[in-house]
Amino acid sequence: MELYVEIIPDTDGRQLRVAWHDREVRYHALWLREHSPDAETLDPRTGQRLIEAAALPLDIALVEARQESETLRLVFSDGHRARFPLADLAGPPPVTERERWDASLSALPVADFDRAIDSDHALLDMLESLERFGFVKVRGVPLELEGMMPLVARLGPLRRTNWGGIADVKSIAEAFDLTMTQRGLEPHTDNPYRDPIPGYIWLHCLSNADSGGDSTLADGFMAAQRLRREHPDAFDCLTQTQVRFRYRDEEAHLESEGPLIELDSAGRVVRVRYNNRTERIPPLPPETLARYYAARRQFFALITSPALTLTPKLAPGEMLIMDNYRLLHGRTAFHLTQGVRHLRQGYVDRDTTASRRLTLRRQLAPVSSTGPQATESRESA
């Protein structure tokens, strides 16, 4: 890897220019010093810093910089010497591209339960699909109340809430409570009143309805992208207005706050919140509320649009894993002539899921790849 290296003149040795064939990066000398990859500075096993970065001299400078094979050799004004692998300076590791989708998505991401249990390669393929699309359908899940747990255990602990671990989502033909009825459910994200919000929803089907009862999925990132393009004022409003969400019963009082569309420091959408039942917008000035209500209506029109909605029906032994920061889910109304529509739902947090994916990617690269088994046609969904 050939590059151009120069300690930038007139910076007193405090800036380094590194130029590749396609781009140029400037590095602060103190940044390089505190990221020095030697065993005195960073723990070789964990990468944790062993020195106190805040105690380094603010005027630390570079006195020598040159390329040696696939490393960059640096000497600092405090006498420290370091060799940076050029690959580490070239940029962050590749990320899984998040594919925004709508109702035209021709193939759903799928995984096989037993293969994901037995094979790290299959598990990584499942997790990469989950990161790419925001959901994955898992087939072959045991028809047991705790059927999902062997796969959960491959990632990390089940997230427990005030409802326990895995909760029943059950409807019966002769319902006596609203939660057990056969009505449809509007698109929503789960539990925006929690801190942190659960990262992934695991929804395992034990039995389903005679007709209807299809899951509905909408890509919140696609909806936000379209809102940004078609109604930029509404997009700005929903990213800037802080909304409270609340759940309260005899044993719990849960509240949290955030915008319906959340951006990162680079302006990219990283989370959507939408839950009509628990939203509690504060009594903001009337003109602010008027703008918010109009923007929320436009966003709602998108997330309920047939053009953005998938309706996969879960059969017994199938499970959906959904990104609760991205996916809005619901269900169509259904009809039961007899029996019970019974699904089981649990949550797994984002940190353990991401850690497992990134660790497997590092351990298995470059041999894992998404094969033909990773998708299914809409006709067979």
Account of the 3D structure:
Residues 112-347 form the TauD/TfdA-like domain. Its EC number is 1.14.11.8. This is trimethyllysine dioxygenase. It is an enzyme of class 1 (oxidoreductase). Its cofactor is Fe(2+); L-ascorbate. The structure is a single chain. The protein is of the alpha+beta class and 381 residues long. The chain folds into two domains: 4-89, NE0471 N-terminal domain-like; 107-380, Double-stranded beta-helix (4-Layer Sandwich), CATH 3.60.130. It is built from nine helices and 25 strands. It has helices at 29-34, 86-89, 113-118, 120-133, 149-152, 220-230, 232-240, 286-303, 350-364; strands spanning 4-7, 15-19, 24-28, 62-68, 71-76, 81-85, 107-112, 135-139, 158-159, 167-172, 185-188, 200-207, 211-212, 215-219, 243-248, 253-258, 261-263, 269-272, 279-280, 309-310, 319-323, 327-331, 334-335, 340-348, 375-377. The strands form seven sheets. Strands 7, 8, 9, 10, 12, 21, 24 and 25 form an eight-stranded mixed β-sheet that branches. It has a four-stranded antiparallel β-sheet with strand order 11-22-14-20. Strands 1-2-3 form a three-stranded antiparallel β-sheet. α6 packs across α7 (232-240). Residues 175-179 and 368-373 have low confidence and may be disordered.
